[in-house]
Amino acid sequence: MEFIRIGEIVSAHGLKGGLKVYIYNTEDPIIYKLNKIYLGDEKTNKEMTIIRAKKVDKRLCILNLEELTCRNEAETYKKKYVLITREMLPAIPENYVYISLLIGYCVFDDNYKEIGLVEDFIHNGVHSIMIVRHINGVEFMIPFVNEFIKHIDTQKRQIIIHLMDGLVE
After folding, report:
1. Nearest 5°: CA angle at 127, between 119 and 61?
2. Are 22 and 10 a contacting pair, CB within 8 Å?
């Protein structure tokens, strides 16, 4: 089963096993729409049932889970991840993608020359930025906007970009 990280546990909250969670996606936090999640990491995790997910601010929420009933239990999950499976993602319109699923895709230029692999995404407040590890090992960033992203092939796990001079040194 493939897991997707949607947040990270910052600390325990309260005496009854609550968790303070740092949310990765602030645009449309999926955590408020779920009734089940996984806690742990991609290799070792446990399915949990959400009783309540309360928003603290844009990046933080408090999770109360059926399986965690005391602070000591909650403390064991500090610095672990909140995970979901691909099947748990809500449906999105055609021609849209979840950018977190693009991590690991091969990146090619306009001439189909391999450039590197997508390692991560960050958000600069205006748009997302794709972090790519060049085939020579150097990391560089590409704005995830139409001017740079020409085509995404989810079947082949490839992204075609317009490579401007000076973008990759």
Report:
1. 80
2. yes
